Amino acid sequence: MKNKMKKQLYILFLLPFIVFAQEQQVEQKQGSNKEPEEEVKIKLADKQVLRKGNDLYREKKYADAEAKYKKALQQNKYYKTAYYNLSNTMYSQDKFKESLPGYELVAKTTDDKEFKAQTFHNIGNVLIKEKKYAKAISAYKNSLRLNPKDDETRYNLALAQDLLKNQENKDNKDNKENEDKDQDKDQDKKDQNSENKEEQGDEDQKDQEQDKGENNEDKEDQDKGGNNEQENKQKPKPEPNKLSQQQIQQLLEAMNNEENKTQKKVNAKKASGQKVKQEKDW
């Protein structure tokens, strides 16, 4: 609960310092600036326009107040209080970027330490709104060098330091997450390449086994073909018109039998006186 209240207190202090109470003091000290003489000649009419702008600012009529401060600057471009209050009006309308040049001009040109300290405080507020925490810290430190007793600036400095730390931690976390994502992508890519290599290796192995099987089949066919050729070589080929020894023997025996039969017939015919014509059965 205490930390929550403290943070709310920091946020309240982000309101810009207003110079309504210091207006007369700032005007009296402008004579010490080493700038053109026209700067110190703030006319009563210019002051009246500025006061009307201040009244409108208190009523939170920021657009109308802005118009009055711009009118005062048109009448006198060296009117530092008008620049400062115009920047406050811009800040109150959330025109943070537009409010910064007026504050910076006052911080560079005024010799009033308290006025300059307030200006650096407001510059720090703008930079916090712009999330430029390191520059905001520098602005608050410049303010505290000029006014070390300003507790509001000290609190805002602590807030800016805390916001900067959180920003750095977030950036580091984001960077780490991005690195982890990149590493995961690289790992996924490596795993995918590894899987592709394994699949390619399996396919190559299958192809090799298939080629090996085909080679074995070709070899078996060749072996069978070689065995058949060997068997064909070992078996004698039959020659046309060539009789085996057994066939020759059988033919010779048949011829002898026929010849014996014929001779018997001839002898029988001689005995009867008849002529017999000899014929061969083959």
Question: What does it look like?
Answer:
With 282 residues, the protein is mainly alpha-helical. The chain has a domain of 168 residues: Serine Threonine Protein Phosphatase 5, Tetratricopeptide repeat, CATH 1.25.40. Helix content is 77%, strand content 0%. It contains ten helices and no strands. Helix 8 runs antiparallel to helix 9. The chain is rod-shaped, with a radius of gyration of 62 Å. The N and C termini lie far apart (144 Å).
Give a quick summary of the entry.
It contains ten helices and no strands. It has 282 residues and is mainly α. α1 packs across α9 (151-234), α3 (44-58) packs antiparallel against α4 and α6 (96-109) runs antiparallel to α7.
The SSE order reads HHHHHHHHHH
Would you state the CATH class of the domain at 2-169?
Answer: Mainly Alpha
Helix content: over 70%
Task: Please tell me the CATH architecture of the domain at 2-169 by its name.
Answer: Alpha Horseshoe
Structural class: mainly alpha
Distance between the termini: 144 Å
Q: Tally the helices.
A: 10
CATH H-level homologous superfamily name of the domain at 2-169: Tetratricopeptide repeat domain
Shape annotation = rod-shaped
The largest pleated sheet is described as:
none
Mean pLDDT: 74
Please report which band the strand proportion falls in: under 5%, 5-15%, 15-25%, 25-35%, 35-45% or over 45%.
under 5%
Question: How would you summarize the topology of this molecule?
Answer:
Elements: H1 2-12, H2 23-29, H3 44-58, H4 62-75, H5 80-92, H6 96-109, H7 113-129, H8 133-146, H9 151-234, H10 245-272
Helix pairs in contact: 1-9, 3-4, 4-5, 5-6, 6-7, 7-8, 7-9, 8-9
